[in-house]
Amino acid sequence: MAFSVKSKKSDKVYYLHQRHQQLKGGHQVTLYFFASQPGEGAIDALPEGYEVSENSKTGLPLLKKKQPV
Fold this sequence. Notes:
Layout: E1 4-6, E2 13-22, E3 28-35, E4 50-54, E5 61-65
Antiparallel strand pairs: 1-2, 2-3, 4-5
């Protein structure tokens, strides 16, 4: 089952996805994003070192790297 987050503002459920992208310089990066429906690239768990926050204006979830303490 895909990792999901419920928006506090809109009560909508969003599902975490990942996609691997090849950059022009040849580097490979992993992109994380939330979508309203689980689809191709949906992942089951939050990546290590990341946390979920929410945009206070729109209610959309955001994935952020955890700040070192």
